[in-house]
Amino acid sequence: MSLSIRNQIAGTVLAVTVGEAMATVKVRLDGGQEITAAITANAVKDLGITSGSGVKALVKATEVALATGPVENISIRNQLTGTVSDVATGPAMAAVKVNVNGGHLTAAVTADAVEALGLSAGSSVVALIKSTEISLATV
Q: Global pTM?
């Protein structure tokens, strides 16, 4: 199956916590960083996701926010450190490519944000992703 979602990072499931309707799945990305995905309990069951399962974390570029350093006192727990590899800026929006250990992410942000944060190739950034915005695919 081909997908339009370009942010696809491989990893291994560390833990699954299943609730009545939703579940959290902790994943160690191939580069060593960890993320948490919040998916339905039915998806966990249907996909057969268990500790040790190989998965790909899928995230739309529009769901990736960027900061110039770790952010405290925020509910977003997924904070992946990385380095900007490319910035393609248009009149209103920009695509910022970020190398994270074990993969690459693209963030779709405003051109104003790129300017305000001073983003360019080589900039250190933290990619912020809500757990509810991460989908998982089994591999």
A: 0.94
DSSP string, 25-74: EEEEETTS-EEEEEEEHHHHHHHT--TT-EEEEEE-GGG-EEESS---S-
What is the maximal distance between C-alpha atoms in the chain?
A: 45
Tokens 């929006």 sit on residue: 93
Exposed/middle/buried for 5, CB within 10 Å: 0-12, 13-18, 19+? middle
CA-closest candidate to residue 9, choices 27, 26, 24: 27
Q: How far apart are CA 139 and CA 127, in angstroms?
A: 24
How far is Cα 19 from Cα 49, in angstroms, rounded to an integer? 14
Q: What is the pLDDT along the chain (139 residues), one digit of tens a residue?
A: 788 898 999 999 999 999 999 999 999 999 999 999 999 999 999 999 999 999 999 999 999 999 999 999 999 989 999 999 999 999 999 999 999 987 899 999 999 999 999 999 999 999 999 999 999 999 9
